[in-house]
Amino acid sequence: MQFCPEPLVPLRVPTPEERLDPPLVDIYVPDGRRTGDKVNVREAQVIIARIEALDRWRSIGVISLIGAKQDATIDHMLLEELGSR
Q: What is the sign of the dihedral through the CA atoms of 52, 11, 64 and 20?
């Protein structure tokens, strides 16, 4: 996991049309199941589908409370699905 000790400072403030509304979205995945190695593939699939549904590319963050292995799984699946655009 990566943590930034410095305050986050946006390089530019998005216009009202560019902003996500709401800026924070929590997603419940009722059919998600965590495996013994603390990975929830279904959760990762749902997150990736939500990111793909955005109408234009933005800087976004994903928070998963499972841990580092889930983080790596989501990162890997995003790169496979969307590339490094």
A: negative
CA 49 vs. chain centroid, Å, equals 10
3-class secondary structure, 85 = coil
Q: Are 69 and 39 in contact (CB under 8 A)?
A: yes
What does the mean pLDDT of the chain come to?
A: 84
Q: Give 39's Cβ-side CA count (13 Å radius).
A: 12
Range of 40's domain?
Answer: 1-85
> Considering its fold, how many domains does the chain have in total?
1
User: For the whole prediction, is pTM greater than 0.85?
Assistant: no
